[in-house]
Amino acid sequence: MPDAEIRKLYRSIGEVGDQLDLEPHVLRYWESEFETLSPRKNRAGRRVYKEEDVAAARRIRHLLREEKYTIEGARQVLAREEEAPGEVEDRREDLQRLRAFLVELRDQL
Fold this sequence. Notes:
Helix content: 55-70%
Order of helices and strands: HHEEHH
CATH class: Mainly Alpha
CATH topology: Multidrug-efflux Transporter Regulator, Chain: A, Domain 2
Shape: elongated
Strand order of the largest sheet: 1-2
Strand content: under 5%
Number of helices: 4
Number of strands: 2
Structural class: mainly alpha
């Protein structure tokens, strides 16, 4: 298997920091502020980040740095996103019913 296809299961805090252009102390601080960012620690007590943790850090970085949310505002956005999957499915069903109604109405004209 070529090296390019091998994906690391775990990354160190330094690797994640380099990937996201963040200092390790920033990631450690975010861990204390956001429940969605909670990397495990290995036997040596070092943080190991799975892909889900990296994605959470990337989302937090986006909210704080690009969208300019405060820590509290970013927490609220993430909380809404966690609740949203059921709402999205409900909304999708509503839109499908509305579309079917509109298509039927158009065909009657």
